[in-house]
Amino acid sequence: MSNHPFRPLRHRSVRLLWSAALVSDIGTWVQLIVVGSLVAADTGSAVQTGLVALATFMPQGIASPIGGLLADKFDRRRVFASALLLQATMTAALAAVLGAGVRDPAVLTAIILVASGAGALGAPSYQAMLPDLVEPDELMAMISLGVYSWNGGRILGPMIGTVLAATVGPAWTIAFNAATFVVLSGAVWAVRRSFRPHGGADGTIGERLVGGWRALRVAPGCFHGVMIAILVNLTLIPFMGLIPIFASAEFDGGTGLTGAMSSAQGIGAIFGGLLVTMLAVRVRRSRMVAIVIGWLAAALLAYATSPNQVAVIACAAVLGAGTSAFFVTVSTIIQRDAPPESRGRIMSLNQASMGVSYGIGLMVIGSIGDLANLRVAFTVGAVALLAGFLVLRHRSNTWYPAIDGDAAESGPRLVSA
């Protein structure tokens, strides 16, 4: 395995897609910060603020499986590019609504929900394209590039969003995000090759969905990777969607502090992606996962007990590093073991499970925050993450070979209680 973090950029198609994705990810973070801050300021509610972030990610639970079917039947490049254009259209509608003076969280959330659903339709196609863009030993570095793009947007987006919101207002700021989807769609169309899957498209919709689930169950690395990702999304990832209300309720901060925390998280995430890519040639995957889970639990506890703004920004950076290290490691395990003909459906099931678990976790952690406070809520999440990981590892008698890639394709087994 190559440990050079930027080796995939030697391919023209990777350079084209990655640079356009960076532009689009900047726009997405501009929208998350601006709309989240508007709702936090208007409502003062962790649940209402969390719903805005939830609307951005929850559609994965419904639309991703449909996107997986499309990815395993049609040219994945065309599916992805078309979904981006639909996402651009709905984001432009959100900009128009904000321009008309609408601030009702329910209306904003509904439009974001539809736009994100369009994105979730295309995401499995993009994920399924990744192993075909690079050599097998470059796959982790390729997945890490997505971390750099997403978190580069997390760093630049809040700063750009803060400036744009103050100068041209929220409507034109969201219009900027709509334009970035058009840019990315154009880059996808410019990749002049086919990504049509071979096999896996026969049968009814129900049969193909069941086939994708069976393929996921049979590949031990895929199954275990999805299970641990669900746990992290239930317990830890909700802190991201609650950054605006945490900054406001606990530190009396506004868009500026929210942006600083998100940017710090992005900087940390880039560092975490670089670190895990370079360590991958030396550390077994099972050991890497255990280290990162411990890291995340400790970092979330420190975040929950941060005494001031400087400390919470620093903790956000540490959380960002651990989060990206985790998802790069787990995504590589899933991509490694996913059969090419059902890769789209497996990736869609992974995205769907993460979207649903994130939504549940966001509502639970947000509700605890409203009932007590977010410091208590994040502490509960940290303890649940560590305890849940220990239970998963103990109950699976194929944990180590599955995570390390040594398991035979006989499916995962859980030890009976």
UniProtKB/TrEMBL annotation:
Q: Quote the subcellular location field of this record.
A: Cell membrane
Annotated Major facilitator superfamily (MFS) profile domain ranges read: 13-399
GO CC aspect terms: plasma membrane
GO molecular function ontology, one term from the record: transmembrane transporter activity
Q: Which CDD domains match?
A: MFS_MefA_like (cd06173)
Instruction: Report the membrane topology from the UniProt record.
Output: Multi-pass membrane protein
Task: Give the InterPro entries listed for this entry.
Answer: MFS_dom, MFS_trans_sf, TM_effector
Taking the record's annotation, the residue ranges forming a coiled coil are none
Keywords of this entry? Cell membrane, Membrane, Transmembrane, Transmembrane helix, Transport
Instruction: Give TM segment ranges.
Output: 16-40, 79-100, 106-126, 172-191, 222-247, 259-281, 288-305, 311-334, 346-368, 374-392
Q: What is this protein identified as? A: Unannotated protein
Task: List the source organism.
Answer: freshwater metagenome
Q: Show the taxonomic lineage.
A: unclassified sequences, metagenomes, ecological metagenomes
